[in-house]
From TrEMBL:
<feature type="transmembrane region" description="Helical">
    <location>
        <begin position="71"/>
        <end position="95"/>
    </location>
</feature>
<feature type="transmembrane region" description="Helical">
    <location>
        <begin position="141"/>
        <end position="161"/>
    </location>
</feature>
<keyword id="KW-0813">Transport</keyword>
<keyword id="KW-0812">Transmembrane</keyword>
<feature type="domain" description="ABC transmembrane type-1">
    <location>
        <begin position="72"/>
        <end position="261"/>
    </location>
</feature>
<feature type="transmembrane region" description="Helical">
    <location>
        <begin position="107"/>
        <end position="129"/>
    </location>
</feature>
<keyword id="KW-1003">Cell membrane</keyword>
<keyword id="KW-0472">Membrane</keyword>
<dbReference type="InterPro" id="IPR035906">
    <property type="entry name" value="MetI-like_sf"/>
</dbReference>
<protein>
    <submittedName>
        <fullName>Raffinose/stachyose/melibiose transport system permease protein</fullName>
    </submittedName>
</protein>
<feature type="transmembrane region" description="Helical">
    <location>
        <begin position="240"/>
        <end position="261"/>
    </location>
</feature>
<dbReference type="InterPro" id="IPR000515">
    <property type="entry name" value="MetI-like"/>
</dbReference>
<keyword id="KW-1133">Transmembrane helix</keyword>
<dbReference type="Pfam" id="PF00528">
    <property type="entry name" value="BPD_transp_1"/>
</dbReference>
<feature type="transmembrane region" description="Helical">
    <location>
        <begin position="12"/>
        <end position="34"/>
    </location>
</feature>
<feature type="transmembrane region" description="Helical">
    <location>
        <begin position="182"/>
        <end position="207"/>
    </location>
</feature>
<comment type="similarity">
    <text>Belongs to the binding-protein-dependent transport system permease family.</text>
</comment>
Length: 276
């Protein structure tokens, strides 16, 4: 009975922490996005006396010659292209690292783990991108996002790959499959749980990324959704109602994506560890 009480207490504490950490700030954003400029300046949790949803929404979308729409396009393009490259590169790397074992394997594992531990260096990365002519370009930013997500993706694919019997590879080779045909037609479709996990988690991270576009993709035409927060905040005057409306608009797409695919995320992250 005591164990049940302790378990119930832990669940209640976890729920309360979730409410405090996530739902209260989210409610704060919503109510202030519905207020006018004067009421939102109070920065409280009070419900607005009058609704200004459409007025704030219209002003946010039209600000600086529809910058928010252009930012949504840039962020969506960046996210889609980065995810495609990330999935293909991580899946191939994870497949090779799991199937082949030689003297270089420990070093490769060490380098992949180092990518999770060592923080990225901004100035040297800018120097490298500038040297290859990709600084302030979308391909350069895509390479940065792929490099940052590579270690996590490889570890997930490698862990799940151990659940696929080697006999599948051997049977395909006997049937005359080449290396690339074996991977793309047989192995990659079997990796759907992990692929779904990487797509959702990495999409949220890339779409909400603030620092990398700021450093590696500067310029008003290159603005992503997170950088549009600067539109309504300055040193002297802050339009809190428009700022919170902007935050609400750029928060909803990742939130909806996460809600609909949360089961696949958990399944993909636990499949390799449970079966392996």
């Amino acid at each position: 009975m005591s164990r049940k009480v302790k378990g119930l207490s832990l669940e209640i504490v976890a729920i309360l922490m979730t409410v405090v950490v996530f739902w209260i700030p989210f409610y704060f954003v919503i109510v202030n996005a519905l207020k006018d400029r004067k009421e939102s300046a109070l920065l409280n949790l009070a419900w607005p006396s009058t609704m200004h949803l459409w007025d704030n929404l219209k002003e946010v979308v039209m600000a600086r010659n529809y910058m928010l729409l252009r930012a949504f396009y840039n962020s969506t393009l960046l996210t889609v292209l980065s995810i495609v490259v990330l999935v293909l590169v991580c899946a191939m790397a994870g497949y090779v690292m799991q199937r082949r074992t030689d003297r270089a394997t420990p070093w490769l594992n060490f380098l992949v783990l180092s990518g999770l531990i060592i923080p990225p260096a901004i100035v040297p990365t800018i120097w490298v991108l500038n040297g290859i002519g990709l600084f302030k370009t979308l391909p350069g930013l895509i390479l940065v996002e792929v490099a940052l997500g590579f270690p996590f993706g490889v570890l997930l694919y490698k862990g799940f790959m151990s659940t696929i019997p080697r006999e599948v590879d051997e049977a395909a080779v006997v049937d005359g499959c080449s290396g690339f045909k074996l991977f793309y037609t047989i192995i990659l479709p079997l990796l759907q749980p992990v692929t779904a996990t990487i797509i959702v988690t990495s999409s949220v991270g890339i779409f909400n990324d603030f620092t990398n576009p700021l450093y590696f993709f500067p310029g008003a035409k290159n603005a992503t959704v997170q950088l549009t927060l600067y539109n309504f905040q300055s040193q002297f005057v802050t339009q809190w109602n428009l700022l919170f409306m902007n935050i609400l608009l750029i928060t909803l797409p990742p939130l909806i994506l996460f809600i609909f695919f949360n089961k696949k995320i958990v399944a993909g992250m636990t499949a390799g560890s449970v079966k392996g």
